Amino acid sequence: MNKSTLHVVWKLVIVSLLVGLALDFFDVSPVDLIHDIPDTVARVFDAVVRAIQWGGKYVLLGAIIVVPVWLLMNIGNLKGKFRNKNKP
Predict the structure, then answer these.
(1) Cα 29 to Cα 54: distance, rounded to the nearest angstrom
(2) Looking at residue 28, what DSSP letter applies?
(3) Using CA atoms, how far apart are residues 12 and 20, in angstroms rounded to an integer?
(4) CA distances from residue 78 to 9, 74, 85, 87 in whole angstroms, order as listed
């Protein structure tokens, strides 16, 4: 095998490990995955929706502070860009 093939195989092993860890986090076993694919997809989807519902509240709460502060910090940069466009 050449170096490129080994590199691809190594990437596949690493990605497979990460996906396997993620599926184990959602309590999915290989047997469940093969026998109950629709149920497995539904369980993973429900877990993702629950995570978004849990985290969404905190993202919105933080954005109430972060976005206006970011806008205030970057308004000078925007003003400078518009001034340079108007000068010949």
Answers:
(1) 25
(2) -
(3) 12
(4) 47, 6, 11, 15
Taken in order 52, 58, 64, 69, the sign of the CA dihedral is negative
Amino acid at 16: S
Q: Sign of the C-alpha dihedral, residues 14, 19, 24, 29?
A: negative
Task: Give residue-wise pLDDT tens across range 38-86.
Answer: 887 888 899 899 999 999 999 999 999 999 999 998 887 777 666 666 5
Q: Which residue has the tokens 């502060």?
A: 69
The per-residue DSSP string of 46-81 comes to HHHHHHHHHHHHHHHHHHHHHHHHHHHHHHHHHHHH
Taking alpha carbons only, the member of 15, 9, 14, 44 closest to residue 29 is 44
